[in-house]
Design a protein that fits this description.
Largest sheet: 3 strands, parallel
Strand content: 35-45%
Order of helices and strands: EEEEEEEEE
Strand order of the largest sheet: 1-4-7
Radius of gyration: 13 Å
Structural class: mainly beta
Length: about 90
Amino acid sequence: VVPATDNLLVEENVAFNTLGHAFVLEDGFETGNTFKGNLGAYTRAVNVLIPDNGFNGIETDNLPATFWATNPSNHWIGNVAAGSEHSGFW
């Protein structure tokens, strides 16, 4: 999860058998980040969500995306999603 970060390189990582989202730009205003050559496999939904206490927004890990892009001003190059319970790319 990459919150409030710009111009970061996330390259050649593997996320396997994870609960909730795997490679995420969280807040929606991150720019210039590059996700390159990463593999996400077997992304699973959580069974228990974090309670909404008025500060953490809406929890979505019960509908996980292996790659979750919230802003088009980032770069997604050659990434692979396999076996997500919900979405490979969102």
